[in-house]
Please model this.
Amino acid sequence: MLTINELTHSKPTWCPGCGHFAVLNAISRAVIECGLKKEETVCVSGIGCSSKLPEYLDTYGFHTIHGRSLPHAQGVKLANPALTVIDIGGDGDGFAIGCGHFIHAARRNVDITYILMNNQVYSLTKGQTSPTSDRGFITNTSPEGAEEAPINVLLMALTAGATFVGCGFSSDVTGLGSLIAAAIKHKGFSFINVISPCVTFNKLNTYDSYKKQCYKLSDISDYDPQSYEKAIKAALGYFEKKPLGLLFKTETSIFKETHISLHPIAPAMQDISTPQKHIHLMQKYLRR
Amino acid sequence: MIGESINITIGGEAGDGILSAGEILCKVIFESNAGLCTYKNFPSRIRGGHTSYSIRISGGLCSTRSDKTDILVAFDEETFDAHNRELKDTSIVIYDPAKIKNIKKPDNCAAAYFEMPLGAISTQQFGKSLYKNSVMIGVIAAILGMNDAHIKKGFSAAIESKKGADILKINLDACDTGINHYKKTEGAKYLKMPAGELCGDNYIMITGNEAMTLGAIAGGCKFIAAYPISPATEIFEMMCSTLPKEGGTAMQAEDEIAALCAAIGAGFAGARSMTSTSGPGLSLMAEAIGLAGCAEVPVVIIDAQRPGPSTGLPTKTEQGDLCHALFCSHGDIPRIVIAAADVNESFEFAANAFNLAEIYQCPVILLTEQVIAQNKFISTAFDYSKIEINRGKLLSEADLNKPGYKFLRYEYTQDGISPRAIPSQKGGVHLCNGNEHCDTGRITEDPELRVKITDKRMAKIESALSSKYLPAPKYYGGGNDGVKYAIITMGSVTAAAVEALDIISNKMGRIDFKIMQLTTLMPFCDRAAETFISGCEKVFVIENNKSAQLCQLIKMRLPVHEKLHSILKYDGFSFSAAEIAEKLMEVK
Model:
């Protein structure tokens, strides 16, 4: 079994107190809990503070371009379904520039896990408003306060068709680790919104303010993550009360399931050394 | 030499069934051992608007259109507006009066006109006008004296498997009706069908898009992600139905950015991977092309060019994406850009593009054009035995775990090519990175390492120049010393230019032109171009765009600016041989 130490490549360059440390730790815990090997795990990211996470993790990784990690992650998984693909990124990366990809990744239901490290601010560019920033949030680019309505990422995930939707908090590494492990084990597109405070550029949404807003879904006696209606209701209340835990989970066929079952050998692992074996495709163009 | 050829043009409204009639006619011609190429002209909409389908028939192989029409079939008046200028004194014009009130004839042209109520004949005989196209094929068959057996085989190849024997019989009866009707027509004129020289079973009839797809699959492609776009859609459609049976998979992306990114993801994971697109899609892909260059991920991008800018002319043809393909994306990256001129090159280059992508671990952009992509050509069958698979420095798990070996994904090497491992391989764990990185793949901002890794990446351009998988230039025309005029082409212009030399030699009795077709545009082989040009008085660069993009590339590479003369066309149509011949004789 791997240890957290073995999964760590180098020391992160995040600010002391950053929520992202907990996410890195929780991902490592989940990889260990799921019994994964380094070589069968791929961590894909876009651009931003959070997207630097694969730099610090000693698995296969792909640090891609801003907003486009999800298409890359889906390509990796479709090319080799035996791999465990964990895609991570921030709220600017995933819900501003990459928002379109999120909706389509959710409805496509490729078997990958997407972890949003949501700090409601652009941090690597030193403090601008993000698509999840609260209204009125003052930044360099919103000197009079953010005017746009924030995106409710949980609600968007549910309505776009994500088959696993969860919400975690950086101050609870243990809970987050098991939630990520459950997401990895889920067959289909799993999404976890992690409340991961930025201690440098977001003085409005802090550990303390979040703690006051959060509640555990497991404390709600009649909460049932198989109920889409209950999940929608919990997600609707996100801006006031943040539900922690598994909101929703359903099983349905994954993207290209028939191709995957048709070919036990993954596209990436196929023997391609004999072009002649495809010559039959030319038959229909020959004169009869 | 193409020799004698016959050009048939059928014109009408989209929805008249002209495209399917053209396809049947092609199959009949294919059976006669003749060569052919088509030229489809259609609007970017589903119904309505003028559509035409031209088929040029030759004894041997032919791969460029003619701008003269021997047989014109008109279902609407617009056909006259669009094609009158193609008529000559010996042309035969057949028109269906159903939608035609005024017959517009060109001035001073002795073409023969015959009114044929094709729709009415079909309705009278078979109860509906649906078979008017088969009646029309009969009329054409009568004019050209086509062989009965070829007609039967062609119709059956086109119809039987799709629609059954009963429908085939009605269509063959309709065709017979057309033949008999024309033969009984007073003053009926006849033309000579070129004698088919393409005997034997080694010929195929195929479009450029189909050839590209076959080439990609032969080259080991196992993943495609794409977004539908004219004129590249057929590649993706064919991949969607074919690839799963060949061990691969396909994903329809939400846009072209996602398409290329997914293809890059699959390439990183170890699948030979591609996307297919046209100009607007290639514009969206620019940033991801830079990523593939920086992170050194193999990926193939097929760009079927259509006229830009912006949405431009989605169903017409151009060579206007060259500069974008060569230079798009910020920063310095190694890339390979190749351009196919016909269906054979489409197949061969597509297969080799995957070797180049994996050997040099960079994006490979393979250019084609609407005129090749969506038209049918008869060609010799593709030679699968010539396709080799070379995966470059992709290591095996055994290589990776040799005692004492330390795998560095971006190891600094002389040829710029580093060893590569793919996820799932033990001992190959690494970070693939679009941020500047050191040999391990981890981020660095160290100025020395930045220079070192940039030099390593860019060294691959020089290494690629000597690759046997990189298409070499092709030469045509007068090979002797002392040829005064040089012509440089790429893609579809080549066949028209080669035929133009025949026209010039027929008129002038000699050829003082020679042609070099550039198949690889990046990396650019300075020496080959320099050698070819040296000693020539003038160099004509002929291309299908406004800004002389190929000429600009040559100017960047060689100090021969005063010798270069551009011949350009950007009206949405490809060059014809006659057009090039005329321009060459005018300017030389």
Notes: Chain B touches chain A through 74 residues (CB under 8 Å).
